Structure formats: structure tokens, C-alpha cells
Amino acid sequence: MLRSFLSSQTWAVAAAMLLLAFPSFAQDAPRKIAIEIEGKAEFDVIYRRALSNATGAVLGGLIGAGIQAGIESSEDAEKREAIYPYVAEQAWRDVFIKSMTDALAEKGLEPVWIEAGAAHEPGTADMYLVLYPAQFGFRVVDTTSLMLAAFIEFEAAYSTQPFSGRNKPVKESFYLTDKSQVSYDQLLADTAGINPRIESVLKMAARRLTNKVVYNIK
After folding, report:
1. Which of 77, 98, 168, 187 is the most buried if burial means most Cβ atoms within 10 Å?
2. 207 beta partners
């Protein structure tokens, strides 16, 4: 019994000394990724503008493409105003940033959110990412059934070196739609479901970008 105890104690001491002698055996500190956001994501509803059927083409030819585009934008603006009051304020930043922070942590990365335009010194982070928000909201994804889905559109640039005059960011475009579809009338009839649909596509985009960045910068 005594020998067993001493043996266990000896192994414990040896393990502790090994960790002290070789710090890499201990938990590694997470790599840092500097993230900058340039611009603001705008909420939008793309309904009539997504309908590129023959009727629209004929109307465009009769009354002029510019006038037709104005009519479509005006109708979409009305739908946007009807839905927007039910969208959580700062939904893009709150959901996207939190989801991306969690996804990065799972990959062993610690995000450092910095102000737009701030200078980046080499060595302050292991990776550098710039986000360029564009749009998010709802758009028609089936022109036959007129079903809508939540969508997000943005650009991103990432590198192992800080962006500067010599290292200009090469932007990559991202466009994602949620798998769940709903009609416009159903969306307004169940306004409680608006934010969950938006959150779903924002979380999907955060995970997609995280995986893309980690894969390309390894």
C-alpha cells in the first residue's frame, strides 16, 4: 500500500516537473486575430427586385428600365418598413460578433476587436481580418412560389500580415441564405419568427467565415 502511494506520488511529481521543463505540454495560449469592421450592415427586403420574369422585362421595355427599377425599389421599401420594426437593433453586430467570437475560441483563436482605421503593428496578432458589412434581411429565393429566406451579404479580407499600403486587402465576397423559407404574409403574421430567422443566417455566416479564415491561414 505504501509502495503504491509513493509510486503515485512519484509520478505526480515527475509530471509536474515535465510541464515546468517543457511549457508546450501545458495548455497553449490562444493565437490572436485582430478584427476590424469597416462600414455598417443595412437591413433590406429584396422582393420585387428579385423577380426577373418575362412580365418584368416587358414592363421595363414599355416604361423604361429606370422607371421600372424605381417602382420595384419603392415596393421593396414598403415591405422593408413593414418588417424592420421587428428586427432587433444592432442584430448584425450582436449576433454575428458573438457567434464569430465563440467559433474562433473553438478553433483556439482569441479575437481582438479594433477600431476601424487604427494602425496595425506587425507582431501584435497572428492573423488580421477586416470585415466589410453590406446587407442582411430577407429576399425572394423562389420566384415561382415567392418564398423568402433570411440572407446576409458581406466582404472580408484576411492575412497573416497587417494590412497597409504594401499589403492591400484582397476582398472576398460572401453571400448566404437561410435554409428556412417563408412567404411575406406569413412573415408578418408571425413577427416573433423574424429575429430567429435572421439570427440563424448570421450565425451560419460567422461559422462559415471562421472556417474559411482558419483553413486559409494555417
Report:
1. 187
2. none
Domain boundaries, the chain: 30-47+88-217
Q: What's the full length of the chain, in residues?
A: 218
- For the stretch 50-78, pLDDT in tens is 886 434 544 455 444 454 455 457 889 99
| Residues 25, 27: Cα–Cα separation, whole Å | 7
Q: pLDDT tens digits for the chain (218 residues)? A: 444 433 445 444 444 443 444 444 344 566 899 999 999 999 999 999 888 643 454 445 544 445 445 545 788 999 999 999 999 988 888 899 899 999 999 988 898 888 766 665 556 788 889 999 999 999 999 999 999 999 999 999 998 888 877 777 889 999 999 999 999 999 999 999 999 999 999 999 999 999 998 887 76
**Contact between residue 49 and residue 156 where contact means Cβ atoms under 8 Å apart:** no
- Cα dihedral 82/84/85/88 (nearest 10): 150
Q: What whole-number distance in Å separates Cα of residue 165 and Cα of residue 65? A: 40
Write down the CATH superfamily of domain 30-47+88-217.
Answer: Lipoprotein like domain (3.30.160.150)
3-state secondary structure of 218: coil
**What is the rounded radius of gyration, in angstroms, for the C-alpha atoms of the chain?**
25
Cα 113-115-119 angle, rounded to 5 deg: 105
Euclidean distance between CA atoms 70 and 181, whole angstroms? 27
* Residue with the three cell numbers 423574424: 194
